[in-house]
Prior knowledge:
Elements: H1 9-12, H2 23-36, E1 45-46, H3 49-56, H4 60-73, E2 76-79, E3 83-86, E4 93-94, E5 97-98, H5 140-152, H6 169-174
Antiparallel strand pairs: 1-3, 2-3, 4-5
Amino acid sequence: MSSPVTFPYQRLIRIDTEEHTPVYLQIAQSMVHLIGSGHLPANHKLPGTRTLSSLLGVHRKTVVAAFNELEMQGWITVLPNKGCFVKNKKAVTIKGQLVSYPAASGFPVVTNTLLDHVFDNVSFKLSFDDGQPDIRLAYAEELAARYAAALGRKVNRRLWGYRPGGENIFLKISLPISLTVRVV
Length: 184
C-alpha cells in the first residue's frame, strides 16, 4: 500500500477563509465530495491528523473536528492505533458516476393511518424565554478572582455584619428566630 501522503490533498481540498462556513466543515465537505466522486476509494487510508494539518496549513484540532464530523456522518471509520479509513459506501458511485437514490421504491409499501389523526386535537404551549444560561460562557476564573479580591479587603468586612467583640446586628435582622447559645 502506498503512503496516503502521495494523494494530492492540498490541491483537492480548498479552504476559503472568506466563507462563513467553518474551516472544519469545509474540509469535511471536500472529503465527502472526494469520497462520493470516487477519488477516495473504499478502504483508502487517510493521513494522520498531524500530517493532513501540515499539508492543508491548518491547526490539528481543525482536522480532528473534520474527521469527527466525517465519522459521525458515516463516511469514514476510525480504528484506534491503526488510522482512519474510507467506508465502503455501496450504491454511491457506479463506474465513477454519482448515483442518486430513487424517489419511489420498486415494490408496494403498505402504509398505516392509525396514528395520523391522534395528535389533531392536542394543543401545544410554546414558551419563548431566555432559557437556561450556558455555563461555558461564564468567566469562572475571573469571577472567582474578583470574589477573592473583594472578600480579602478589610473595608468590605463591615458589610458582612460581623464585628469582633460586638453584636451582629446584620445577622439578628436577617434571622427570624433569635438563638442564644451558652457555653458551660
